[in-house]
Write a structure and sequence with these properties.
Blueprint: H1 4-10, E1 19-22, E2 27-33, E3 36-42, H2 51-61, E4 66-72, E5 75-81, H3 88-92, H4 103-122, E6 127-129, E7 138-140, E8 146-148, E9 155-157, E10 163-165, H5 178-183, E11 185-187, H6 188-204, H7 220-229, H8 247-257
Antiparallel strand pairs: 1-2, 2-3, 3-5, 4-5, 6-9, 7-8, 10-11
Helix pairs in contact: 4-6, 6-8
């Protein structure tokens, strides 16, 4: 547990120059605490998320990479280790920065995310269904090793429970499985669907949301499926990739994504 004064000092008074970004929970600030770079997620007064999501993330992340929290008055903050390369979407969907991600690195990121999901889904004491698995919730450290983040919408399942139903589907359009978006049914399979979308995005360098081509009206998933049926799957690969030595690996990854 950290004092509010400690968080104020660490982030230079939550200075705008220290702000890393903002999500549904609230703004995130970079800070320095006892010589270690940290990221402080501060619950916003206007956030639609609240005590439940705060507690949810606290429980889910406590054994992963949470350094601590601050609960004082109306303030609610989560303190994480700082991830040097921020989130995957900021690199993957940037026309210049995406060139940093050659195929071996992209393949390592895909495998790292898969290992993370496996860990969340197979722990018998604390099975976690993330429910908002997307590129902006994948953080990258200095070695480009991925970490799954943002567990505010996650559901914890105990024993042999692997899914449930909700009256209100939460998450991000473009990553939701059909049964979840339409009927509110979610399970570990919902996360696997989102992972498949993410795999195709990593391979292509394109976001499923807002994806358009002049010769058809498919989203990225429809485009990938069309190419696959026409045995042209490799055309999905990002144009900046040099993958001639990894053709079978790229093709298999597309297959897995679909």
């Amino acid at each position: 547990m950290f004092e509010l004064s400690t968080m104020i000092n660490a982030t230079n008074g939550f200075s705008i120059s220290n702000k890393l970004g903002e999500g549904g929970f609230g703004p995130v600030f970079k800070g320095l605490l006892e010589g270690q770079d940290i990221a402080v997620k501060r619950l916003s007064t206007t956030s639609l998320q609240g005590a439940h999501e705060f507690k949810n993330e606290l429980i889910c992340i406590a054994k992963l990479r949470l350094l601590g929290c601050c609960i004082q008055g109306e303030e609610r903050m989560l303190v994480y280790e700082y991830m040097t390369n921020k989130s995957l979407d900021l690199i993957l969907f940037d026309q210049v920065k995406r060139r940093m991600l050659d195929w071996p690195r992209r393949f390592d990121i895909i495998n790292g995310i898969a290992r993370g999901l496996t860990y969340l889904h197979q722990d018998p004491r604390l099975r976690v269904i993330h429910r908002d698995h997307k590129a902006s919730n994948i953080l990258l450290d200095s070695d480009m090793i991925p970490k799954i983040s943002d567990f505010g919408l996650a559901r914890i399942c105990g024993g042999n429970e692997t899914g449930a139903k909700t009256s209100r589907a939460v998450g991000t359009h473009g990553y939701m499985s059909p049964e979840y978006a339409v009927d509110g049914l979610f399970s570990v399979k919902s996360d696997v669907f989102s992972f498949g979308v993410l795999v195709l995005e990593i391979i292509s360098g394109n976001s499923n949301r807002g994806f358009t081509l002049v010769n058809h009206r498919h989203n990225l998933l429809g485009h990938a499926w069309m190419l696959y049926k026409e045995e042209r799957s490799l055309e999905l690969a990002d144009s900046c990739l040099e993958y001639s030595s990894y053709i079978s690996q790229v093709a298999r990854s597309i297959h897995v994504g679909l």
